[in-house]
Amino acid sequence: MGSRSRGQAAVNAPTREFAITVPLVRHLLEEQLPQFASEELTIAAEGWDNVMIRLGPAHVARLPRRAVAVPLIEHEQRWLPALADVLPVPVPAPVAVGRPSSAFPYPWHVSPWLDGVRSSVARGGVTRGVDLARALAALHRPAPADAPHNPVRAVPLATRSDVVLERLERGSLSHLARIWEAGVAVAAWTAQPQWVHGDPHPGNALVDPESDHLTALLDFGDLSAGDPACDLAAGWLHCDSTGLTAFQQTYDSLSLTPDDGRWERAAAWALSMASSVLVEAPDDQDNRGWAQAALGALESR
Fold first, then answer.
1. Phi, psi for residue 248 in degrees, rounded to 5
2. Please, is 148 exposed, middle or buried when counting C-beta atoms within 10 Å of its C-beta (0-12, 13-18, 19+)?
3. Distance between CA atoms of residues 59 and 77, nearest Å
4. Do 128 and 214 touch, CB atoms closer than 8 A?
């Protein structure tokens, strides 16, 4: 499911607060979800926030490795099953939920194993741009009043200016500040907050390596309500120039809410996300490639 090499931890990942092992997961399954307990278990990936344990050929268990990730897991458990019904691509909606216990202090869950390779393997063209736009346009619908709020994603750009401009200066990227400033200068999103994935980088999407079709969207822990332009950063993060054009044209044709400044704000979000990888995690080779490509595309605007 778009994993890193089996068992490999994310570069510069925060120290885990709880050791998640195959024997532990076996115990949790036997105790709480015995229908999965007989499956072969293998560590599929360890990220900043979660560990993924594959359960046979069809499922994967997702367990938080630190307390700060618990609300993200809970967001997926509460909201993703309903959203899965309206999205045109598969998502890892939980099919069974585990509870905290004496063996493991956090909630966790089991979801389907989704096939494909990470979108970050290569820049996408027209096919991927169209698929990605269709998926995000389907997600971007009015969110309920009790939807989660993320203080750093899908918020008004002006509230993030100090952080982003300081990062650009620290990373010798100040020449790109004009892109951020252009996004801040256009009209902010004032319509009803919409559902937003929140973290649309290429590691959170799977594609078919032969057809380039999008096969899944992953990791909805940052799901929140706000400005959908945050997700539209994906056009620069995933696609080459032809893919970006197809992405923008397709999304504009499907969006039901007029928004003259969406692409300026989206470019600013792309700058923020790509610069964060290059400046804050310079050794993360898994993400460095797409971040550099995105900044190059933005610079040519």
1. -65, -45
2. buried
3. 15
4. yes
Backbone angles phi, psi at 196, to 5 degrees: -135, 135
- Amino acid symbol at 37: A
Quick one: tokens of 166? 């300081």
Residue 12 has pLDDT above 90, yes or no: no
3-state secondary structure of 242: helix
- What type of residue sits at position 234? A
CB 140 within 8 A of CB 228: yes
Query: How many CB atoms within 10 Å of residue 134?
Result: 19
Left, alpha or beta for 147 (phi > 0: left; psi -120 to 50: alpha)? beta
Residue 290 pLDDT greater than 50, yes or no: yes
Q: Give 93's contacts (C-beta < 8 A, 6+ positions apart).
A: 76, 80, 81, 83, 84, 111, 112
pTM score, whole prediction: 0.93
